[in-house]
Amino acid sequence: MYINVEFTRKDTAKLVINTNTKYNVMNIKFMTEFLDTLADIEKEKNCRFLIIKGQTNFGSGADIKELNIASKDREFAVSFFNYMKEIYNRLINLDKITIAQVEGIAYGAHLELLLVMDFIISKRDAKFAAPGGKIGVFPPVLITLGPYLIGIQNTRRLAMLGEEISADEAEKIGLITKSTDELDLETEKIIERMHYMAPSSLALMKRHISKYLERELDNVFKTLSIQVTSDDSREGINAFLSKIQPSWLLNLSQSK
């Protein structure tokens, strides 16, 4: 089991991710389990708030080993990215307020999870990045929702420059809600403030704020399923696994 769920109070569930890797990764086993867990939580009518966190690290993104398979097998690529797209769509449409707690790193697909959460509380020493372009795999949710949520220039910095940013910077650009040394305390403060809102009002606000987030996700994930099988992606993924430089970096070095 990669996911553990406990109810910290009657109306609040905490979902903890642990994929038994150095950094939590997003693979098919995790994605199917995550979707099943969200379906179970959806049935809990008394649950209004869902906290999602990783064990030690929030997550390092898509499993590079399964990306390697996807780069060579179009059918697997379509399946892999359909599961991933469904996770983002399910979180957007979940009838619970979602709060991410970030420790360690939130890279790649895990950074993109934050874009579909309602609130994000982060440790002050957490790091955020979307380095997929370096191995030839672009970040679909970031380039689609990022301009709407954190602005075009910040999206370019994260996606096209592959910058790693601190929690303070992530808070400054609106990627996260708050950086703090007290995750649970800050999360509790946010939940308490929402208790002043009528449940129906809160649910409707979430629904209408989030309805814009599904735009273009279908198209961008279809493009990614094709792009991951390109020569650049295959080379970039193999170079990462082999700990060598891809040709575009070698060509850059030779041109200097």
TrEMBL record:
<comment type="similarity">
    <text>Belongs to the enoyl-CoA hydratase/isomerase family.</text>
</comment>
<dbReference type="InterPro" id="IPR051683">
    <property type="entry name" value="Enoyl-CoA_Hydratase/Isomerase"/>
</dbReference>
<dbReference type="InterPro" id="IPR001753">
    <property type="entry name" value="Enoyl-CoA_hydra/iso"/>
</dbReference>
<dbReference type="Pfam" id="PF00378">
    <property type="entry name" value="ECH_1"/>
</dbReference>
<protein>
    <submittedName>
        <fullName>Enoyl-CoA hydratase</fullName>
    </submittedName>
</protein>
<dbReference type="InterPro" id="IPR029045">
    <property type="entry name" value="ClpP/crotonase-like_dom_sf"/>
</dbReference>
